Amino acid sequence: MSAAVQSAVLGATGYSGYELTKRLLAHPSVKQPALFRVNPDPTQSPNLADWYPQLSGNGYGQLVMDAFSWDALKAKGTDVIFFCTPHEVSRELAIEAGDRGFRVVDLSGAWRLKEATNRAVYKFEDHDPAQAALLDQQAVYGSPELHKYAIEKAELVANPGCYATSIILALAAWTNDGLIDLEFGVICDSKSGVSGAGKAPSPTTHFVEVADSLSAYSVFGHRHTGEMLEQLGLEASQLQFTPHLLPIPRGILSTIYVRPKTGVTAEVLEYSLKEFAVGKPFVRVFAPGKLPQIKYSLHTNYCDIGFQLSPDGSRAVLVSCLDNLVKGAAGQAIQNMNLMFGFDEREGLQ
Amino acid sequence: MSAAVQSAVLGATGYSGYELTKRLLAHPSVKQPALFRVNPDPTQSPNLADWYPQLSGNGYGQLVMDAFSWDALKAKGTDVIFFCTPHEVSRELAIEAGDRGFRVVDLSGAWRLKEATNRAVYKFEDHDPAQAALLDQQAVYGSPELHKYAIEKAELVANPGCYATSIILALAAWTNDGLIDLEFGVICDSKSGVSGAGKAPSPTTHFVEVADSLSAYSVFGHRHTGEMLEQLGLEASQLQFTPHLLPIPRGILSTIYVRPKTGVTAEVLEYSLKEFAVGKPFVRVFAPGKLPQIKYSLHTNYCDIGFQLSPDGSRAVLVSCLDNLVKGAAGQAIQNMNLMFGFDEREGLQ
Amino acid sequence: MSAAVQSAVLGATGYSGYELTKRLLAHPSVKQPALFRVNPDPTQSPNLADWYPQLSGNGYGQLVMDAFSWDALKAKGTDVIFFCTPHEVSRELAIEAGDRGFRVVDLSGAWRLKEATNRAVYKFEDHDPAQAALLDQQAVYGSPELHKYAIEKAELVANPGCYATSIILALAAWTNDGLIDLEFGVICDSKSGVSGAGKAPSPTTHFVEVADSLSAYSVFGHRHTGEMLEQLGLEASQLQFTPHLLPIPRGILSTIYVRPKTGVTAEVLEYSLKEFAVGKPFVRVFAPGKLPQIKYSLHTNYCDIGFQLSPDGSRAVLVSCLDNLVKGAAGQAIQNMNLMFGFDEREGLQ
Amino acid sequence: MSAAVQSAVLGATGYSGYELTKRLLAHPSVKQPALFRVNPDPTQSPNLADWYPQLSGNGYGQLVMDAFSWDALKAKGTDVIFFCTPHEVSRELAIEAGDRGFRVVDLSGAWRLKEATNRAVYKFEDHDPAQAALLDQQAVYGSPELHKYAIEKAELVANPGCYATSIILALAAWTNDGLIDLEFGVICDSKSGVSGAGKAPSPTTHFVEVADSLSAYSVFGHRHTGEMLEQLGLEASQLQFTPHLLPIPRGILSTIYVRPKTGVTAEVLEYSLKEFAVGKPFVRVFAPGKLPQIKYSLHTNYCDIGFQLSPDGSRAVLVSCLDNLVKGAAGQAIQNMNLMFGFDEREGLQ
């Protein structure tokens, strides 16, 4: 058990950064986080409560975001840095953070992928490619349900993507147990609320464009696909992932279609899921025939999973739900920090 | 070309019935429709404008719904009856309508299915099973894009289901042209607005239950599945259909996953779709790489279709959109009436 | 009755401009409108169907927006120009349009106000202040319900603001008839959908910021206040107008609180409203005790009005609703054009 | 400071009852609440997690609702009963609860009003009118900001209405300090999310009826009006309250229009609000010119208050926001319980 940990948040103004900060402020075992902005726009307020008035009056005092510098970070006594920054920024800063001895949880996509073919979609332009390649392999994929022990010792934890989390946690039990006939492929049809697209205004996040509608996007080649392939041990030809933009603020539901291998019954499939969930406090497996809905896991760190098997046993449909800003981002980041510093996995998340 | 047609609407108070009535009132070639209620609740207003105040002041005068009787129907000089009634009611009344010489467009699921195995899900309790069986075969599935000439002469048109329309129109070209490798199956993941669930209040349509959420339902065995199988010539094992309830009032988006046969290129797939759309004024095929969104077809009779092929050519994703109350119900019903009475297919629908 | 009129739309890509264009395309007495962009961004498509795919396939062919110039406008044989441009642009172009003999309907706030004190909020910077001042007085406030005959002959019609329309039409009868005790003031609490804020992305129109919330803004001094004062003949101290941003795409509801003069009964108030509505096809007065809701007038050109009087007769609450993009913008613009060119007021609006 | 308190919830399945139960489960100083249903429908599950699957897996075990009886209540060692029941039920049970020595927090409208004229709107049919009349006077209106010391000792706390809370807390400072010119009246225009209408399905809470719209209702004579009058010391003629139904699940925003007395400046008004908020941890007064929005207080127990004064000083507009299920119901109920049992007012509410 560690003494109180000092965390720092880089980029608290985005949706994930704000959700993270709010939860760090209420976390019983960490000090009030230090807040920093990287290359701040001087016309924008450094006071986080001006960005999120809901923070006012909680007794935290002024929540001022300082301009980021390594010295300022050190002066605060920082133990762990949360990068809530664009992946280009994370890519650059994480190397130096390691050199300076800071432990890091990176919420961007910068360090999640081991395979160069999967990283290609990000078009990283590394200043020191050799060092970056080294860190690519040292970084630990921050799925506590899959890599608990590695996370505990990790210097750099790559917090998983929101879509990836919803699909990896739903499928890991069955792929690990070899229950799926992969020849037929795995079809993942995901639907996400708009906060997944970030806080920057754009034509695609304008209220009028999103409301009363639904759209598919990145039908092939979404950046999170590589995470799913690597973590589930699938080949690209075996996995189809298509996201959709829902007219709701937050939440993801993934509908996953697979063919169980011959002889795999509903009982086997259920047993596999329940076994997987043992000791994983944020995985909720629903009773047979019951399926999760987005609203059940909103504002929580749960990933909810349910499935149904077709009457002839030839097809299974998995449904998983989570809150993209919690289990899909800030909550999972805190769960990772808890593991890194020896806290109970659930601290600050209930 | 017929003279002005007299139509009658049974059940104008539901969402489809209202949408139909509104469009019949504005149709240039039909008289003001006669409105009837079957077994009306005497505590409820017979004036349609009390149910839908948006109808007021359009110069149609009082839109009174009379109590249904065959004599009243005849007295109005009715040429065609639209059944916007529960399928049990349609199942019973359609037989007598035929005996009395009325042409019928039935918006329920009562007469859409030819195969007894597919009809089983409805659990029909026919008073005269032999006559019902006869009518099952005489009824014409009212998809103008598939059965135009049969509809023109039909006495009983079974207006297709909303989900079924979105999937049949998207897939018909490729299944007809034999472009899909059916061994891998066809996965249809559909999402619908709440009006598809009808106007009767229920826990599942309560605003608070639907808002900010998403849920899958009828993961296997939804009633519209049989229509898809029969119209596309697929076997049950080849088609997976799963609907979801969207927090929007209206509109359907279906995402459909297929494997093209070896050697079938994007050009072949596109050509097939475009050929299919020729002469079909309400099918819009999107340019390669562009996909429809729900908002594009709202309040129109279009079914919008687009697709993308994976870079390796092994998977195609079709997206189709329509307004469940228009092309998925009332608009398609009017399109059918137009064909039955020799009008231009587009009359009253633009 | 004029022969077919040639219209031109400047700025068809915004929400009002698109709504206008769509309705002009379907208008039975005008030719297909000429579309122009003022200082177009060359990186953006000139094809309107790329901005609004819902336009595709309607048989209008390519809807290309040309770069604006006076010569191009003349070459198209333009009779009337609709300015769907920022008010600064309208302020500049309208003067030259008049000099060149084009009739104009301006949808911006540039020419709506007669009083310099009311115009001050816009901070106009006129190149030729004298000519602008002249045009300020010549411009006709385009409320067909108030200024029908002036509109018929007008060269420049200033299409009213959306909020202003909802409040002016609700109050005009009672202020004209002197039924309100103005000493107590008139309180107007309005709520509008997000399209009223325009199509440009901004933090305040981001889906996540708007959804599940409500906010008041411009509590004092909103730009539309001046229109209300001038058209209703009120002094600033007598009118309070506060708008709110609703989490819906379109529609306005205004709740208006007044004190009737002593002795003014519900019957008098109702009679006044009904008298006002005579001959005004787009004003719907609801039966006593019934109130309009936003959904009743969506996608129509109606302004719906209802009221209730307190049991003691001391307070009346008026509720008015309209679609901000139709009666609050594009529909009213077409209504004005209809009057300017001798068409039936309702053409293209039903 | 009391030892752990045993609470009981009657009616945990409604929105307020569920919100309350969830918060009691997490409250650090109370035992797991006993759950009861009054006259339960035997076809409905007694397990609360079947009603709200989001409760699953939180480590609370089965949350079974027993059939209510006084003996069962006593057997659980109940110290305080929360009535989340219809007001008729609360009206009947509260009397016997007092006789049996249970302390009560009633979330219905049964016991909030002191004046018979105000109570008339509820049409109570008391079995023992004399005893009911006695309890009407003994019951304490459960606004901790107004009646803290009475609540501490109360046997029966009448938890305030949601609308009433939003208006009373916004106005109490200024009415107490005599800053408002009441001759001109106080106009309260409130807007509420749909959960305020309860969980029972009805035409007015159907998703399709609520979405994309807004409506005013109970324009005069809403049940919460009496609470406002009594708590603020106003006469009926001085207060106008009109609620509206917003297409969001939860949250209330009230816009309140008043005339300050001559000479009352913005500084005086602000000082009065800030003075009022001293020692009231759940009242947040916004900085001058800043106004609360519904999203700021969602899922919290705050009532947020801001105001602006017109440039000429003649009118002030107050805006207050709260979550109708938290500060407007369950959160305030817990705050009351905290006071009744000597806990910190904020326990279980942060």
Q: How would you portray this structure in words?
A:
Four copies of one chain form a homotetramer. With 350 residues, chain A is of the alpha/beta class. Chain A folds into two domains: 7-160 and 328-340, NAD(P)-binding Rossmann-like Domain (Rossmann fold), CATH 3.40.50.720; 162-324, 2-Layer Sandwich (Dihydrodipicolinate Reductase, domain 2), CATH 3.30.360.10. The first copy, chain A, has 13 helices and 14 strands. In chain A, strand 12 (283-285), helix 12 and strand 13 form a beta-alpha-beta unit. The two termini of chain A are 19 Å apart. The mean pLDDT of chain A is 96. Chain A binds chain C through residues 15, 193-195, 199, 201-203, 205-208, 210-212, 247-250, and chain C through 15, 193-195, 199, 201-203, 205-208, 210-212, 247-250.
Helix content of chain A: 25-40%
Biggest interface, CB < 8 A: A-B, 43 and 43 residues
At the fold tier of CATH, the topology name of the largest domain in chain A is: Rossmann fold
Broad structural category of chain A: alpha/beta
The neighbouring-strand order within the major sheet of chain A is: 3-2-1-4-5-7-6
Cα Rg of chain A: 20 Å
Low-confidence stretches of chain A: none
The run of helices and strands of chain A is: EHEHEHEHEHHEHEHEHEHEEHEHEEH
User: What is the approximate shape of chain A?
Assistant: globular
Tell me the number of helical segments of chain A per DSSP (H or I, 4 or more residues long): 13
